[in-house]
Amino acid sequence: MLLGQSVENINKNDKSVTLSSEKVLSYSKLVLCIGSNPVYLNLPGETLKGIGYLRDFGDVDRLSKFVKKGKRAVLVGGGYIGLEAAAALRSFGMEVTILESMERILRRVTEPEISAFYTNAHTTRGVNIVTNAQVSAFSGEEQVQEVICNDGQRFPADLVIIGVGVRPNVMLAEKVGIEVDNGIVVNAQMLTSDPDIYAIGDCASFPSPFTEARIRLESVPNANEQAKCAAASLCGKLKTYDAVPWFWSDQFNMKLQIAGLSHGYDNIVLRGDTMSEKFSAWYFKEDILLAVDCINSPADFITAKNLLTARKNPDKHLIALSEKAIIV
After folding, report:
1. Largest Cα–Cα distance in the chain?
2. CA 265 centroid distance within chain
3. Is CATH 3.40.605.10 what the domain over 51-166 is classified as, yes or no?
4. First CA to last CA distance, the chain
5. Could you write out the DSSP letters of every residue in 82-102?
6. What CATH number belongs to 7-32+169-234?
7. Residue 255, H or E segment
8. Are 144 and 152 spatial neighbours (Cβ–Cβ below 8 Å)?
9. For the sheet containing 16-19, what is the strand order?
């Protein structure tokens, strides 16, 4: 393992990589696990102290001192990063505002029913959520003091955390002619357009058996499953990626677990009571189960994951009866 060095170039002809130290390493097979980087806003005032992005422990350490001495936090972006950070900061007693550019939080990653639930859950716990908010600048002298929106609204802040998505790292692949399309293009065995180079994780764009399109997932389970596929191929045992996508998010005392992908659903069945913060939302396209969002409902999550893996479609009427078990 070589730490503190980056790969500067891939030479496909002689199968070698050149490191930032100018050391050259040869390979028979190469796996690109190069992840993604945050989308940067590059707005006026963004370099002020107290403004940052969350990607690693270093970011957390650097921003933690502003949590200890500050009172007001603004989260730019109402995705999972923003909501999880908001919940954590409220637990420290900070005043928290989320600024979301779209018409609802979690717009990119989940459906309106779950967005509405989390909007209510956060606001009742003291989080101020502002949608359709276009941030245009940050103001302050050395440290941030305000977040400014293009409609003139100003939000006082001692700490600003920006979480507006990520972009896959594809420059290294592009430079050597490996096919790229919203990520490094791979097949179901994680092989790129080069027969000796694989790609996995956030950077990989792959054909999913659960959609009719090529997708890219940003999650720990996805990276782990793709690593298993690539490892099998490297050992001469071809393995097709067919794992059910799943995700999780912890906010306050609520655990969200998601199985499947809800894109393209045309009807939804709710199981349980949303007011009790213990329920699940089952997404169907006609009678075909696509995905399930589970709030504090681990049994439903396990059942849903098993159903999706087996490509089985449960009875919608049985799902709606929350006191009834769902047989897989």
Report:
1. 64
2. 20
3. no
4. 44
5. HHHHHHHHHHTT-EEEEE-SS
6. 3.50.50.60
7. strand 254-260
8. no
9. 7-11, 16-19, 24-26
Can you tell me the distance from the alpha carbon of 178 to that of 9, in angstroms, rounded to the nearest whole number?
Answer: 13
Structure token pair of residue 85: 């950070």
What residues form DSSP beta bridges with 146?
Answer: 139, 156
Q: Which of 293, 204, 279 is nearest to 248 (CA)?
A: 293
Distance between CA atoms of residues 216 and 308, nearest Å: 19
Q: Give the mean pLDDT per block of 10 residues along the chain (328 residues).
A: 93 96 97 96 97 91 89 97 97 97 94 94 98 98 97 97 97 96 97 98 95 92 97 93 95 97 94 92 96 96 96 92 61
Q: How many whole angstroms separate alpha carbon 25 and alpha carbon 235?
A: 20
CB 40 within 8 A of CB 52: no
With contact defined as beta carbons under 8 Å apart, do 101 and 134 qualify?
Answer: yes
Closest CA to 260 of 252, 49, 268: 268
Which structure tokens are listed for 230?
């690539």
- The answer to whether 314 and 290 are in contact (CB under 8 A) is no
Whether 7-32+169-234 shares its CATH topology with 51-166 is answered yes
Rounded CA gap, 111 and 280, in Å? 13
DSSP 285: E
* pLDDT for the residue numbered 318: 87
Cα separation, 58 vs 163, whole angstroms = 16
Burial of 120 (0-12, 13-18, 19+ CB in 10 A): middle
* Cβ neighbours around 66 below 10 Å, total: 21
Residues 6+ apart with CB under 8 A from 43: 135, 136, 137, 138
Rounded-to-integer distance, Cα 76 and Cα 79, Å: 9
Delimit the domains of the chain by residue range: 7-32+169-234, 51-166, 253-320
CATH architecture of 253-320: 2-Layer Sandwich (3.30)
What's the order of all strands across the beta sheet hosting 128-130?
A: 51-53, 159-162, 72-76, 95-99, 128-130
